[in-house]
Every structure is written in C-alpha cells, then in structure tokens.
Fold this protein.
Amino acid sequence: MKKIVVATMASLLLVTANISMAGGDAAAGKAKSATCAGCHGAAGISANPLWPNLAGQKEAYIVKQLKAFRSGTRTDPMMSPMAKPLSDADIDNLAAYFSGLK
C-alpha cells in the first residue's frame, strides 16, 4: 500500500512540475499577436461572430487548439496556415497573452 501511495505522490509531483513549466511569456505573446488581431481583434475580442474571442480563454485550451491546427489534426482554411509556422514557444507565449486578457 505504501508503494502505491509513494508512486501516486511522485506522479502528481511530476505532473505539477510539467504544468508549472508550461507557461509562456505574455509580453512575447503580445508582440507575436499582431497577426492574430486581423481576425480575433487587437484585444482578443473578434468583431466577426464567425471568429472566436481569444481574450480570457484558458491557456491550455489555446495551446491545444493551436497545436492541433499546426499538426493538421484540426483544419481550417484560414487558421491552419497561420499556425503552421508557430513554434512551441510561440504557441505558449500567445496562449499566455490571450488568456491574461479580460
């Protein structure tokens, strides 16, 4: 029983460490977000109901969606080519920026 508890605690510590290291740089994300503003608005609020608001979205959700567009597991004629050149750091930074907006 002690081995199970110790193994579970160790797993939780590793997961927590990975989550805390995943945060991006919001200032770098803001600088990179100029391209996003054309559709999603300068402050992450879209003027067009066809394009989602990014302001205030959960950071992990933005990361997941951008990586899906980049890899091709999610496709959109406008978003897929926009996400293709993004690095993991770019995605983390954009997610940090947009998730911090109200």
Summary: The radius of gyration is 16 Å. The helical segments are 2-21, 26-32, 34-40, 59-71, 79-83, 88-99. The chain is about 65% helix and 0% strand.
